């Protein structure tokens, strides 16, 4: 037996259909304005969980990128200092060779050369105490503001600063001063063979009061200092190349993860716009049809 369709039933059904149509329009409008197909987890639980994983991976990848940038900055600072120090020591070597030529240099000439060596030593000492973000760049991982004292004593340590540059990949982003300029502490004072500043101090003294043989002997320790700096520069170059390669990989991974996230929660704007227009047209048509079907009666006004 068919049930009776009353005026109230028709009105309720029409209103429910109009509200459902409005809800679909509202959802499409939200997607168009936000550019995302998922506004809350209940929209699509599986896609929402996948989007969260992609966002977590993107955040981790961005941290790796920051670590790489931080590492390259520190290595660039150290490389600039060591390039300058290398040139300074090369000049010292030339001066020492000149000073050792006793036949061509008198005491006054050697004194002038010694003063040049002293000046270069002071420049190198200042360079070795270069700071980056308030910390001595050659202090190892020690939180100090000066890596070397005036007498060449080393205040830092031999530890490296590490940065995570990729999953499971940690890179040393500094060269401790001991590897570049030499060691020496208050308890174990620096020696000329193990400390560039002591080597330069001894060379200066040999130029002032020594013979060609003692100057040549002192020059040998300066050459050891040159070898240390050359080795440190080679290590910085290798680490810089490693970080540059990791940076390229990180950027490529960032693009991949962003595209993957867009695939999960992105909106096809053209498709959504067409669907929105269709829903809007359907809503306007339904509204007009409902207005004709549901005509108000005197009873509606009396309620």
UniProtKB/TrEMBL annotation:
Signal sequence, renumbered to the chain: none
GO biological process: bacterial-type flagellum-dependent cell motility
Gene Ontology MF term list: structural molecule activity
Keyword terms of this UniProt record: Bacterial flagellum, Cell projection, Cilium, Flagellum
Domain Flagellin C-terminal per the UniProt entry, residue ranges: 222-302
Xref: Pfam families: Flagellin_C, Flagellin_N
Source species, domain of life: Bacteria
Region (Disordered): 27-48
Subcellular location: Bacterial flagellum
Polar residues compositional bias, start-end: 27-42
Gene Ontology CC annotation, any one: bacterial-type flagellum hook
Alphabetical list of InterPro entries matching this protein: Flagell_FlgL, Flagellin, Flagellin_C, Flagellin_N
Ion transport among keywords: no
Family as reported in the entry's similarity comment: Belongs to the bacterial flagellin family.
NCBIfam families: flagell_flgL
Name this polypeptide is given: Flagellar hook-associated protein 3 FlgL
Species for this entry: Kineococcus xinjiangensis
């Amino acid at each position: 037996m068919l049930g009776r369709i009353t005026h109230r039933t028709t009105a309720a059904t029409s209103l429910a259909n109009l509200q459902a149509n409005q809800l679909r329009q509202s959802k499409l409008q939200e997607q168009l304005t936000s550019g995302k197909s998922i506004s809350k987890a209940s929209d699509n639980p599986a896609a929402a969980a996948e989007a969260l994983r992609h966002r977590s991976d993107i955040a981790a990848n961005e941290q790796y990128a920051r670590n790489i940038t931080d590492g390259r900055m520190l290595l660039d600072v150290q490389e600039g200092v060591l390039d300058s120090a290398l040139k300074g020591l090369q000049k010292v070597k030339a001066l020492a060779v000149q000073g050792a030529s006793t036949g061509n240099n008198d005491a006054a000439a050697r004194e002038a050369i010694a003063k040049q060596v002293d000046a270069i030593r002071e420049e190198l000492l200042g360079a070795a105490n270069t700071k980056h973000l308030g910390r001595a760049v050659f202090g190892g991982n020690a939180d100090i503001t000066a890596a070397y004292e005036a007498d060449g004593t080393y205040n830092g340590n031999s530890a490296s600063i590490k940065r995570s540059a990729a999953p499971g990949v940690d890179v040393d982003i500094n060269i401790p001063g001991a590897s570049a300029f030499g060691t020496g502490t208050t308890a174990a004072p620096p020696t000329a063979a193990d400390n560039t500043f002591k080597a330069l101090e001894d060379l200066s003294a040999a130029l002032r009061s020594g013979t060609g043989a003692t100057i040549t002997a002192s020059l040998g320790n300066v050459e050891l200092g040159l070898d240390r700096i050359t080795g440190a520069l080679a290590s910085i170059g290798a680490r810089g190349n490693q970080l540059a390669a990791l940076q390229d990989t990180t950027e490529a991974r960032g693009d991949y993860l962003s595209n993957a996230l867009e695939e999960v929660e992105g909106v096809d704007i053209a498709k959504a716009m067409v669907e929105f227009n269709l829903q809007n047209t359907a809503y306007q048509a339904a509204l007009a049809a409902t207005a004709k079907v549901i005509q108000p009666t005197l009873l509606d006004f009396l309620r």
